[in-house]
Structures are given as C-alpha cells and as structure tokens.
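Hi Q.,

Before the meeting this afternoon, I wanted you to have the NAP prediction in hand. No need to reply - just skim if you have a minute. The sequence and ligand are here:
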Amino acid sequence: MVLETVPLGQTGLSVSELALGTWRFGRENDAGEVEIEEDRAHELLDAFADRGGTFIDTANSYGDGRAEEWIGEWLADRDRDEYVVASKIYWPTRSNDPNASGLNRKHLRGQIDCILDRLETSYLDLLYVHRWDDATPAAEYMRTLNGFVEDGRVNYLGTSTETPNAWKVVKANELARQNGYEPFSVAQPRYNLLDREIEARYLPMCRDYSLGIVPWSPLAGGFLTGKYGRDETAPSTSRAATDQSFADRYFCDEHFEVLDHVKMIALEVGATPAQVSLAWLLHQDAVTAPIVGARTVDQLEENVEATAVTLTAAQRTELREGTA
Ligand SMILES: NC(=O)c1ccc[n+]([C@@H]2O[C@H](COP(=O)([O-])OP(=O)(O)OC[C@H]3O[C@@H](n4cnc5c(N)ncnc54)[C@H](OP(=O)(O)O)[C@@H]3O)[C@@H](O)[C@H]2O)c1
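Predicted structure with the ligand bound:
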C-alpha cells in the first residue's frame, strides 16, 4: 500500500493523503514516561516514508522541541526537499515571560529561527498559528508571518484549531488580501466522527476560501479504534491509561453508540474500526489529509491501509447520523 498524493487546498503544493503526527514524540505523559522515544520516532518516520508519506506535522512545543530535533536528525539523512514539513507557534516557550508566547512579533521571530535550527533546514513548507492570540493585533502577526514568506523561511501559512471562531480566519485573510500579505491557505481543526463542531460554521468557511483541511485527532486519540470498552478498561500502554483528559473527553454513552456503528460497518467492509473511521474522514470532499498519530509502526500500517477502504453512501450516512 502506497499513499497517494493530493493537492493542499489551492496552494501549488502536493502532500501525501495522510500526514504523520509527532505530538507524542518526546512527550512525557501523566505517568512521567516518554510516550515515543527517539528510536521509535525514527522508526515511525521511516515506516511512513516507506509507504509514500511525505507530509510531516510537528510544532515547536511538541516534546519541548525534541520532536523537531528528532525530525531534523532524520531529515539530515534524507533529501529534505522530498518532504512537506509543517510546524506551529503559539504556546509559551519560557515561563513567566509574557513575550515568550502567543503571536507577538518578538515571539514569532525568535521561534521561527529556533524551529529551523532544530529541524536542520532553511525553510518550513507550512507554518501554522497553533492557537489564536487575541492580545496581539491581527495586523501585527499577519505582517510578521508575511515577512517569513517573503524572505523564504516559510512557504505557506496555516491556522490551527480555532473552530468556534471562523470569523477570525475571515478577518485575518481579508486583512491579508487588503495589504497584499500571504493569507492562511490551510486549516488544521480537530475533526473525527465524535468531534464534529466544525461542520456548522468552520467547514463552510474553509470551503469558501478553498483552504486545505488537515484534521487532527482523526481517531479521537484512539477511541475510534474500538480498543476501549464501556467498562472503561484501557490497555495499560494506551492513551486513556496515561492521559486523564483524553478519558474525560471521550468516555460517554453517546460516543460508545457511534463506536457501535463503526464496528458494525467494519464487519461489513472487512476492515478495522480505525480504518473505517479514517475512511469516513478521507471520504469527506473538503478534507485534504488527516494527521494520524500512531504510537507504533503496527498502528501506522493499519492506518495507512484505511486509504484503500471504500464506504458506500449509505454507510457514510449511518456513520454520520448514527442510524442504520
Ligand atoms: N493543532 C493542534 O492543536 C493539534 C492537537 C493535537 C494533535 N495535533 C496533531 O495531530 C496528530 C494526531 O493527533 P492524535 O495523536 O490525537 O491522533 P489520533 O490518530 O486520533 O490518535 C492517535 C493515538 O491513537 C492510538 N492509535 C492510533 N492508531 C491506532 C491503531 N491503529 N490501533 C490502536 N490504537 C491506535 C494511539 O494511542 P495509544 O496507543 O497510545 O493508545 C495513538 O497515539 C498529532 O500527532 C499532532 O501532530 C494537532
């Protein structure tokens, strides 16, 4: 199975139909264990690239910079230009320093250089604002971000997560248009069968601007793989066992009912629940490339196979509406 390449919104860039997420690279979980160590991170990157994966998603905050460092070491042995590397800026990079977080010019300028150093590259393909910063005027960060595109350190801009506030993207992109700045061309919202708030306002906005849509947590952090039961038992290495916020978010009757439909359709099409859940996202015409967050190579292989799963219109409706 080799991943196909798809256009990233209306940019001229092409990316693999799945992106590899690196949020858990070098990250300490609630139990104080590093979830994905360096060797495993490199195995995952190798496995992804071997299957045609080109689109790598990271952030300056992942593993306090370790994710970018490990990607940089891995890229140093490859042809960097063959990969589309996306990173993000927003979260604090120093404690007790109001200028070391958000999208103010000082923080953005300092962080873009740190990101490029850690990734051992002279340019980022895509830079996202990781969250919105209401304390900094949009004109300030849009102009600063435009400067990164003008000087070649960044190729495209993206916006992450601010899903209830589609108007903020509209405001920033209209400001960019009026001033001749680079606009946001890509959106990275949380989107999966359980987290669908983007469908009301955010998705129509993305469609109108022809933004590339790169959903995060496409498997609801693993809930949609079907590995959790209603009794809340969780495999000891799984996210639910080591990340309380995950369990708090997903363990409820309504979500288990959606999962029941996913499991039934998985039996019908001869796939796993994870593959059906990913296939549902891949069938959405507005979606460009879900970011899979596999922790092991086996998980990644299973997820890549989802690109070969076809769902009928009736099955997609059943998944969307929760009724057969
Ligand atoms: N922009 C943002 O604010 C933002 C926020 C979050 C994430 N992201 C990006 O999105 C990426 C993906 O997010 P995510 O990790 O939440 O995605 P996800 O794909 O929904 O969840 C990944 C987790 O599910 C489990 N899993 C995945 N495939 C599996 C399989 N086939 N079988 C069994 N378990 C499986 C693994 O957890 P366990 O094995 O540990 O249970 C894995 O760590 C991140 O790495 C990051 O790049 C962005």
